[in-house]
Amino acid sequence: MKVTLFATCLVDMFQSDVGKATVELLERLGCEIDFPEAQVCCGQPAYNSGYVKESKEAMKRMIETFENAEYVVSPSGSCTAMFREYPHVFKGDSIWEPRALKLAEKTYELTQFIVDVLKIEDVGARFEGKVTYHTSCHMTRLLRVASAPMTLLKNVNGLEFTMLPGKEQCCGFGGTFSVKMGQISEQMVDEKVMHIEETGADYIIGADAGCMLNIGGRIQRTGKPIQVLHIAEVLNSR
Amino acid sequence: MMQGTIQNRDAFLNQIASRLGRERLSAPLPRPAWQYQPQDEVLKDATVNELVEVLKTHCLKIHTSFVMTDLQNLPETLEKTIADYGNESIVTWKDQRFSDWGLDPLLKDTLPRQNIDVYEWDYTRGAENIRQAEKANIGITISEITLAESGTVVLFSDKDRGRTVSFLPKTFICLIPKSTIVPRMTQAARIMREKHLQGNNISSCVNFITGPSNSADIELELVVGVHGPVKAAYILIDDL
Amino acid sequence: MTMKIGTGQFKERVDQGINDSFMRGAVAGAQERIGTRRNDVISELNWEEWRSHGEEIRQHVLEHLDYYLEQLSENVAKRGGHVFFAQTGEEANEYIQQVVAKKDAKKVVKSKSMVTEEISLNTALEQAGCEVIETDLGEYILQVDDHDPPSHIVVPALHKNKEKIRDVFSEKLGYQLTSKPEELAGHARKKLREEFMAADIGITGCNFAVAETGSFSLVTNEGNADLVTSLPKTQITVMGMERLVPTFEEMEVLVSLLTRSAVGQKLTSYITVLTGPREELDVDGPEEFHLVIVDNGRSNILGGDFQSVLQCIRCAACVNACPVYRHVGGHSYGSIYSGPIGAVLSPLLGGYDEYKELPYASSLCAACTDACPVKIPLHELLLKHRQIIVEKEGKAPISEKLAMKAFGLGAASPLLYKMGSKIAPMAMNPFTDGDKISKGPGPLKAWTEIREFPAPNKERFRDWFKNREKGGKQ
């Protein structure tokens, strides 16, 4: 199966290990990976700040870059949800709406792709450790992917899982919200970190680069002995 | 009934139509064909006895005592319930059914002889009715429609059935004929609408009452009995 | 704008909220308790179908609003009620003042109503020489405490603890018992009973008016609305113009959605459906009934991008689900309408000058949209506000505009994007400390005030991928 990787700008620049794990994992599951060099950002930072015109330019580039793919897969729920939102953004545009729709239909978040398209529930991973999982908002509420990551984690050998209390609460990232409304974002991420600590987990796992940047950054600043991992890294460990 | 007045309507509605980008609608609108009707699914196939069970179970959640009886034992059951709530003054609707159900001896003889005031609503006495209801310990009414799902009784006001009988006394006792039980509010709404479409005036006040008055306005702690009754009791009468 | 509460800038109000530990504990507790009850009670139903039905009813009514309002007014008049259409809050208040004058009324009892808060009716009544008594327990507490503003649509005094309420009651009402809620409520009951019996006019809001019969419904747990509408000789009901349904059948559906969403109950203790004044021989109920239908900026929302916000049934499910409200509380919003619905509605009714920050007070987590029983796409409407603030109002900060222009250019050009991301590690070098940036420049400054930011990877993912392709896999 041919998979075109939409790595996301955060992974490209700041979390290349996540990108590497995604590639290795998908290859192990029998996919052939392609990474188009022309990919940029999905446009979400501008779009969510109200700069719709500016964001549309980025979106058009992304449509051009990915529209010939068989499947587009991304290790980020929020960015995937943005792709799925493109047809809505271009609603009424006779050229771009159909192209956006075609792209949206074949774009998947990584765990969703593994479970729903590849029909694999056990990736044969082994990971020793006590973990909890952050269900990010855009992945669960916009993309409606809730069970796939749980299914995959459940089948990882050696992994000890504890459910995160208050898991439906936002971590306080929200893109530019995290800097525009820093004082509120701080309260939100602190509550999230407190809940993570309550589980006694050594690792907090997520499937969204933005949330992980936020939660990880706060954990690092406050010096908590908890490690942040992307679900691709866990599923890729053996 | 005197016709009321309507002021400032046209400019107001014209503004709405213009914002909606069209002329004012004048021709009667047909009933909308709704795409969804989930309300019909609730307790759809339940038998009357199953509905009674649902009602009974839900009474536990709404701080309401529930007792079942039949017409023969009704006077005794009511007498006991009144005693449970302190054997003090009572106000009731004026309703032929009290008589039909054999409650006259209790309400008009037994209780008064025990020095328990029983005041029957009498519209000719005007505001005196409200004074009586305000000082009564117990108000007794009859449910016209009873909603199993939510444990709700439905009361229709009229000249003999004062609204305040169910609000002002400390205890609310409602007699529920088993024949009035329906699954939920959906059926009650249809009955009311039917009544209207058949050309009958709907009562000026229809009360859907679900247990005693309560509030969680202070630190979200439930307080039972704020403005209306502090206690509620349902007596289900098997009239089928 | 009279829906405004408090003074001070948004950031100051937020700081105050964040530092109010009692309020935050109360709000978090309320969100969890109401949330749990709501989840339990909606799980018994095919909730998504119920929401879709609620949505289609509300959309249909808004599309045909002039028709249903006309039908409603005809039917109210047929039953002897008087209907006044008020395009502004002032018009509504003046009309009500006239009724008060004609009745020579001295005492008004009110049941809870957001629209009367919105138009500051109480102030207008006091100007007309009336004593106004709020009878909803929460509203009464706020009123006794020198008109403290509400902080939640359904639980208005949520921000107050019982000790504070006891102190207020002792100071203002001569209360001498403990801070137990039942004793406090018992005292209020006694006081308010006297007020009910002596009141000249009862004023209510309206949960749902019914066009076909000229009826309207009131939903409470306390039963105060029933006393407000049973005892005084004159009744005035004030409704926002969009709060109506075609028939009893739709009323029933929306009441069910409301009580489950607002308080997690199948039905509240009292749902009262009133039609006209009392009938000729009735003893209780008002002799005279007035219905005041208020526009006050609502019609400007019709026909535009925000029309769906008028679907709102004021259940506060979005407020109870909101993580931002959870930490900052209701007063931070500076409006009687708080939480996500407040952040959407306040700028529409009160203008962007007053409320331009509110659309940004959201992480766009969409919990509000999921919770809404009539499917208002709240987080999308917040985004729409942001777009208007940027594109039409020009109220965005210059630095942000420049950054976003640069984003537009950079993101739209694969080449520029590639170059930018390539030089990032070098550009960030002065700020980098090992693998992290602790004191970032520009927009990163706000981020690094509370958290670390990762240093850009020396080898970008794309470089790794390219090199790997060149070298052949492994």
UniProtKB/TrEMBL annotation, chain A:
InterPro entries: Cys_rich_dom, LutA. Coiled coil: none annotated. Residues 3-84, 131-215 form the Cysteine-rich domain. Is involved in L-lactate degradation and allows cells to grow with lactate as the sole carbon source. Belongs to the LutA/YkgE family. HAMAP family: LutA. This is Lactate utilization protein A. The gene is lutA.
TrEMBL record, chain C:
The keyword 4Fe-4S applies. Pfam families: Fer4_8, LUD_dom, LutB_C. It comes from the Bacteria. Residues 309-376 form the 4Fe-4S ferredoxin-type domain. Residues 69-294 form the LUD domain. [4Fe-4S] cluster 1 binds at C312, C315, C318, C372. InterPro entries: 4Fe4S_Fe-S-bd (IPR017896), 4Fe4S_Fe_S_CS (IPR017900), FTHF_cligase-like_sf (IPR024185), Helical_ferredxn (IPR009051), LUD_dom (IPR003741), LutB (IPR022825), LutB/LldF (IPR004452), LutB_C (IPR024569). [4Fe-4S] cluster 2 binds at C322, C365, C368. The lineage of its organism: Bacteria, Bacillati, Bacillota, Bacilli, Bacillales. PANTHER family: LACTATE UTILIZATION PROTEIN B. Is involved in L-lactate degradation and allows cells to grow with lactate as the sole carbon source. Has probably a role as an electron transporter during oxidation of L-lactate. Residues 385-470 form the Lactate utilization protein B C-terminal domain. Belongs to the LutB/YkgF family. Keywords: 4Fe-4S, Electron transport, Iron, Iron-sulfur, Metal-binding, Repeat, Transport. This is Lactate utilization protein B.
